[in-house]
């Protein structure tokens, strides 16, 4: 298993110049590779191979007056930029052929000189961490690294990046054992929880415990809007515009850093306190295109679920995703009847009363159902379902889910699933 370890570095003024030169050369080689393959498509010829592009765009280009400056940086940086362009085209063709999961990808585009830039060094570049803690990079020098932890093994590659605010970071790729971060198993059978994500509260856990939604972007939205208005009034190319752009970038960076730190702390706490974690498989991509897109992006559900799954796997915890079509909100956790609110109007209902007399909080009831369904999936040996797949949801009730309008002597209705030609969605709480 490979992990990334990220640290901040503090290059000197000459080293910043050398890094800027490397950033620019890598961007130029990437754009030349994209242009060469676009030209081949226009001319109807075969796409040039990576070896052909390497010879033409790097080796022979260094001998010309127009590209002589490519020889001032490490050749490994240029080769990695060429490999990135080749990987981008491979992903694009795989997406066209239907071999790549996820949404359809477009062809690679030209890179621009933006605030976020990066280059990558592999072992062929012979980078090394010196005894004094500095990182030696070819054609750059010895960088001062702010070490916050020890690398578990020798890194296979290192990526140097520059943020829009002018900060520099290095990211090491390190190989670790799969069981290197496993935690001690928790013997308590109650050390498990369902996680019901929402916008009113970020998450509701077992026993009604609530993780409040911090809304990092909403807190700084007015300050960001003011900084963006100031930036729009500055003359392009002026020093005042550069300062205003930096103010906007710093606000964005503050939002990003505080959100990332908060997510990491919540993930670590959940994994350390629970032996099993059951979550709902949210359609985050679909939610981020709706009327609550800003709030969904601010909540960072995708980041949270991805990191929770990764951390649980490394810690040896049980992690199960309950199908997004499972009616966790509408299902009564007491009698197992689908009597909860539904539709758009049902999103406004925070509590409801079942026909059996049970009074339910919307999110607490959903957490109980998610936890029970997750345990059923673990016991059944599979981790996906469509509306419980006709299995038992509440204890002591065999058979399929029963509609409250259905008579006692009638046949139970079949589980309803979404049409195959419609993108699955989920209601937002």
Question: In terms of topology, how is this protein built?
Answer:
Blueprint: E1 2-10, H1 13-43, H2 50-59, H3 75-96, E2 117-122, E3 128-129, E4 135-137, E5 141-146, E6 155-162, E7 168-175, E8 192-197, E9 201-204, E10 210-212, H4 216-219, H5 221-232, H6 239-273, E11 276-280, H7 284-287, H8 293-299, H9 301-315, E12 318-322, H10 343-346, E13 351-353, E14 359-361, H11 362-380
Parallel strand pairs: 8-11, 11-12
Antiparallel strand pairs: 1-5, 1-7, 2-6, 3-4, 4-5, 6-7, 8-9, 9-10, 13-14
- In order across it, which strands form the biggest sheet? 2-6-7-1-5-4-3
Main sheet? 7 strands, antiparallel
Rg from alpha-carbon coordinates: 27 Å
Helix-residue proportion? 25-40%
Q: Could you give the order of the helices and strands?
A: EHHHEEEEEEEEEHHHEHHHEHEEH
**Can you tell me the overall shape?**
elongated
Overall number of strands: 14
Give an overview in words.
The chain has helices spanning 13-43, 50-59, 75-96, 216-219, 221-232, 239-273, 284-287, 293-299, 301-315, 343-346, 362-380; strands at 2-10, 117-122, 128-129, 135-137, 141-146, 155-162, 168-175, 192-197, 201-204, 210-212, 276-280, 318-322, 351-353, 359-361. The relative contact order is 0.09. The protein contains eleven helices and 14 strands. β9 (201-204) and β10 (210-212) form a beta hairpin. α5 packs antiparallel against α6 (239-273) and α6 crosses α9 (301-315). It is an alpha+beta fold and 429 residues long. The strands form three sheets. Strands 2-6-7-1-5-4-3 form a seven-stranded antiparallel β-sheet. The chain has a five-stranded mixed β-sheet with strand order 10-9-8-11-12. The protein has a two-stranded antiparallel ribbon with strand order 13-14. Mean pLDDT is 86; it is low at 384-429.
